[in-house]
Design goal:
CATH class: Alpha Beta
Domain Metallo-beta-lactamase: 22-222
Helix content: 25-40%
Oligomer: single chain
GO molecular function: hydrolase activity
Radius of gyration: 20 Å
Number of domains: 1
Organism: Compostibacillus humi
Strand order of the largest sheet: 1-2-3-4-5-6-7
Protein name: MBL fold hydrolase
Pfam families: Lactamase_B
Amino acid sequence: MLIPITDSIQKIVITFPQGMGSVNSYLMKGSKGYTIIDTGMNHREAKEIWKSFLSQGEKIEKVVLTHVHEDHVGLAKWFQEKIGIPVYVSDIGYQEMKKNLNRSMEDIQRLIQNHGGPEIPKTFRWDLSIYDFEPDGIFAEGDVIRLGDDEFQAIWTPGHAPDQFCFYAKEEKLMIVGDHILKDIAPVIGLWNGKEGNPLQEYLTSLQKIKPYSANLALPGHGETIDQLYDRILELEKRHQWRLEQVYRLLKGEPKTAYEICADIYGEVDILTHISTFMATLTRLIYLETLGKIYRIDKDGVTLFHQH
């Protein structure tokens, strides 16, 4: 069940039949017990994994969240209310939790249809109850936070999520990166609140922010550990540039919607199973628009993009 990472850090992969299908939770060993980084989705399968671990009698000091996407925050309320474990979240994450309690499927539906997409099946619903609790502690940009017995600097890296934080231990040259940087895939950059913004710009800026930190080992929220963080950042930047050029080329002819561009790149798009690819396409288009490379046209309430 436990995968050793270092002498004081172990990983447990929490699985569930939704979204990415699993999340990496890290157990940071300390004299007061383990600090758990991220929890997994609020699903029976994930709870059973944690119950099996807790049945071994291991002491848990606290839960700390990298960000409040469902697969990371999902069982935080359960840990707090059922197991009696305090939960710590960033100041921005706390604000996102309060916003998410009022998150509307209508906003997402409006955004998708405005950009040429179909109606979301009415059976699709979010579990917003996971956000209905008060954190026991709050941390902020630049704070030093103790994870296990080691001190980490909290670094705000918005993009994948507005509240995404990384944690850096200078002496160990170790960084916990959440979903900011993954080893084998590019993190999805989306507009999950249904409001337009420019999260890809935020993400690329956050990659630059992380570059100066010397980290020989990075612990991501999904997949395998990253040995050379700087090299992986360069790969992600190159990949994003390639995708942006691809999107730009696809707008050379007739104006197209984000949904049409998404289908050009990824093939036929089922909005429920491929909403992440739609979001990634839309945020690239918005980024190119802010650079002045493309412009939008409104046609019968639907947005199309075209090259300048």
